């Protein structure tokens, strides 16, 4: 029995290693291609370089991309650039350039790629924490490892893959806190006592991680708010159904405030710390606003840097809410779940003899196109889970829906804003969690039969083949033009 248990553990660890090996291969192989700034890398890579050198982002001269791509990476100007996202994501990109150098695309992208691999590992930990099943954890990690959108976003120096990592990290810390706090509250109630959880280290860590996510993109605030509300009201409900005396006072008025203080101030401090480069320098955009202006009322007593930073945030906020310019790859959020308008990051054609092309015309494309099989089935799974949760209120289902709802539904409230389908990568891990959970539910409903095993194995084999088929257009492989066209299943994909 001991030998069998040991062999099982070895197989589990081997599965974990294999999934990470797949994630590493798809995200790290030929990472330096193309040696060009693709899509919004034109902003984030150059901003990251000037930020790391000056403490704030700088403008660049006309035609800077070609010069930057050739290796002349320090040609930025002295005047500050107006940027619309917080600095932390660009500090992460800069760390890769510090490690491998800024003159090659591998240095631009390595930190994003490594965080993409780490996100796969994190998802397996989250899945195991939720489902207590190694098989489901490996299944979730494998599906994220092979999904085309996740691969493309991890291989591109944009903000969304790092954002996803810190969102999922914060969610993992929240799950650990939620499990421990429920046990502590439940035990105290059984003993006839009222208890308050004063210091919650895992909730504090969740605040740090989600503060970091918000310091990459403000959309990280959605999950921070959702988790904060869940913590307060789920524990309030636990106290109520357990018939704790004075459950409103202890659960809402007292514990609610304490939980807020464990989560939100540390998130705010983490967010603010990402601006230290801007605060400690004098040449950032709006950095000296308070020298000639002042905030109204008591806010005018704040330090000048704080007033200038507040003004900068007002300007950024107005930019985001008024962003409605047409873009050829913009998409309505309601279409994201079915992948109807993937974003093309890069496309070039080559003639015979160029880039290894051996026929008249070849193509190289990088498109943030998810595995259609994974996305369609995950969407169906989420619809079923939403229906099931309304009927049963199962806690695990609620936690899966919490992640998707917090990170997806807010986008539906701003349909006129210019947005892109690849934003959906931030909640893809929760979609995959929902998919593997429904697969387990169906497997149990069918029974441990040959049919059930065939369906599960068949799905994973087919999903793998679909990912292999689309991989060339996820990572920019040079293929015959007809092969690229063969992978553009819908006119809206072009």
Automatic annotation (TrEMBL):
Q: Which is one Gene Ontology cellular component term of this protein?
A: membrane
**Topology versus the membrane, per the UniProt entry?**
Multi-pass membrane protein
GO terms (BP aspect): protein O-linked glycosylation
Q: Start and end of every ArnT-like N-terminal domain? A: 107-270
Q: Where is the Protein O-mannosyl-transferase C-terminal four TM domain?
A: 307-493
Q: Where are the transmembrane segments?
A: 12-29, 107-128, 135-153, 159-176, 197-215, 221-238, 250-272, 373-390, 397-414, 420-443, 455-479
Which keywords are on file for this protein?
Glycosyltransferase, Membrane, Transferase, Transmembrane, Transmembrane helix
Q: Does the keyword Transmembrane apply?
A: yes
| Cross-referenced InterPro entries | ArnT-like_N, PMT-like, PMT_4TMC
Entry's localization field: Endomembrane system
Q: Name one GO molecular function term.
A: mannosyltransferase activity
**Principal cellular location given in the protein's record:** membrane
- Pfam name, any one: PMT
- Protein's pathway: Protein modification; protein glycosylation
The UniProt similarity line reads:
Belongs to the glycosyltransferase 39 family.
- Report what the protein is called: Unannotated protein
């Amino acid at each position: 029995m001991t030998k069998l248990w040991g062999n099982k553990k070895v197989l589990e660890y081997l599965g974990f290693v294999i999934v990470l090996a797949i994630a590493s291969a798809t995200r790290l192989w030929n990472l330096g291609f193309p040696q060009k700034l693709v899509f919004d890398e034109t902003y984030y890579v150059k901003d990251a370089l000037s930020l790391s050198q000056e403490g704030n982002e700088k403008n660049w001269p006309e035609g800077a991309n070609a010069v930057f791509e050739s290796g002349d990476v320090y040609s930025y100007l002295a005047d500050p650039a107006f940027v619309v996202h917080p600095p932390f994501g660009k500090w992460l990109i800069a760390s890769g350039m510090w490690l491998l150098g800024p003159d090659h695309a591998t240095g631009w992208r390595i930190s994003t790629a490594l965080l993409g691999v780490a996100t796969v590992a994190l998802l397996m930990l989250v899945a195991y924490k939720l489902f207590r099943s190694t098989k489901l954890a490996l299944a979730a990690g494998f599906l994220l490892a092979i999904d085309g959108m996740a691969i493309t976003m991890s291989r591109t120096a944009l903000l969304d893959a790092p954002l996803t990592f810190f969102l999922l990290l914060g969610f993992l810390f929240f799950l650990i806190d939620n499990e421990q706090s429920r046990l502590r509250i439940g035990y105290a109630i059984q003993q006839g006592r009222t208890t308050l959880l004063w210091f919650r280290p895992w909730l504090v860590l969740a605040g740090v991680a989600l503060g970091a996510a918000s310091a990459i993109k403000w959309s990280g605030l959605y999950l921070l708010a959702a988790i904060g509300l869940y913590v307060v009201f789920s524990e309030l409900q636990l106290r109520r159904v357990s018939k704790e005396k004075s459950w409103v006072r202890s659960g809402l008025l007292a514990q609610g405030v304490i939980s807020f203080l464990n989560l939100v101030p540390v998130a705010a401090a983490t967010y603010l710390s990402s601006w230290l480069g801007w605060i400690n320098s004098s040449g950032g955009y709006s950095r000296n606003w308070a020298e000639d202006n002042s905030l109204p009322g008591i806010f005018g007593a704040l330090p000048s840097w704080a007033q200038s930073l507040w003004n900068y945030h007002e300007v950024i906020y107005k930019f985001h809410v008024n962003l409605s310019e047409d873009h050829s790859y913009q998409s309505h959020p309601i279409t994201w779940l079915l992948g109807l308008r993937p974003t093309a990051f890069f496309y070039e054609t080559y003639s015979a003899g160029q880039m290894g092309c051996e026929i008249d015309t070849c193509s190289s494309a990088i498109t943030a196109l998810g595995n259609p099989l994974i996305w369609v089935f995950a969407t169906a799974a989420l619809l079923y889970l939403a229906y099931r949760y309304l009927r049963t209120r199962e806690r695990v289902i609620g936690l899966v829906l919490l992640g998707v709802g917090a990170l997806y539904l807010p986008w539906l409230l701003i349909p006129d804003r210019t947005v892109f389908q690849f934003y959906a990568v931030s909640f893809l891990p929760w979609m995959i969690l929902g998919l593997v959970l429904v697969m387990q539910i169906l497997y149990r409903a069918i029974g441990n039969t040959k049919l059930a095993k065939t369906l599960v194995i068949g799905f994973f084999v087919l999903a793998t083949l679909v990912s292999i088929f689309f991989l060339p257009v996820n990572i920019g492989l040079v293929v015959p033009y007809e092969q690229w066209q063969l992978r553009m299943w819908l006119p809206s994909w072009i």
